[in-house]
Amino acid sequence: MSRSSPPAKSPLSRRNAAGCGTSFSKSTVSALCARLDPLVTAWNERPLGEQAFPFVLADALVVKVREQERVRSLAALIAIGINAAGYREILGIQLGDSESENSWAGFFTWLKRRGLSGVDLVVSDAHTGLVAAVQRHFQGCTWQRCQTHLAGDVHALRSVRPPHRPGPSAAVGANVRQPGTQSAGDAGDGL
Predict the structure, then answer these.
(1) What is the 3-state secondary structure (H, E, C) of 38-92?
(2) Which residues pair with 41 in a beta bridge?
(3) Mean pLDDT of 132-160
(4) What is the pLDDT of residues 77-131, one digit of tens each?
(5) What percent of the chain has pLDDT over 90?
(6) Which uninterrupted H or E stretch holds 94?
(7) Which one-letter DSSP state was computed for residue 9?
(8) What is the CATH superfamily name and number for domain 50-145?
(9) pLDDT, the chain, mean
């Protein structure tokens, strides 16, 4: 006589059970998502014209999406605005085929159509498509490389042997933490 063991739970089911004290069936998750979709869409399409956002942070995250019985990678484009009072707000999230200039251009056009205005500074990584779209859609504003991406790129330099990588990373970190342009310039002389 053989005993059958219960079906193994997926890692997601185990995480849900650990975090929520219970697990959810696929149909429950689908039903919850169907109820959330209109709320998320309304939030993501809300007007942005009530205030200016002088500072915008832009980045993308590559996600796996199931479409027509297959899974493919898409770029989740996201922008966070900082208003004049210093409050941050997610301006919108949109899926694009990639981080190409065309994907970013469509994203920025969508944000501007919803009322995004008053942009003086855009901070992002140095992806060429993103930088080109910023220059085209926010003419006259300043673009700045994200310090976190810069530090990560310096740390990953292939020309610096791994045991020596902490030195340049620490130097860049010390430079970006300077309180003003004069001290940053002085610290940069050591790079």
Answers:
(1) HHHHHHHCCCCCCCCCCEEEEEEEEEEEEECCEEEEEEEEEEEEECCCCCEEEEE
(2) none
(3) 76
(4) 999 999 999 999 999 999 999 999 999 999 999 999 999 999 999 999 888 999 9
(5) 50
(6) strand 88-96
(7) P
(8) Ribonuclease H-like superfamily/Ribonuclease H (3.30.420.10)
(9) 81
pLDDT at position 132 over 50: yes
Domain ranges of the chain: 50-145, 146-185
User: Which of 182, 174, 117 has its CA nearest to residue 151?
Assistant: 174
| Predicted pLDDT of residue 117 | 94
Q: Which helix (H) or strand (E) holds 12?
A: helix 11-20
Q: How many CA atoms lie within 13 A of 165 on its CB side?
A: 13
The pLDDT value recorded for residue 14 is 64
DSSP string over 101-149: HHHHHHHHHHHHHTT-----EEEE---HHHHHHHHHHSTT-EEEE-HHH
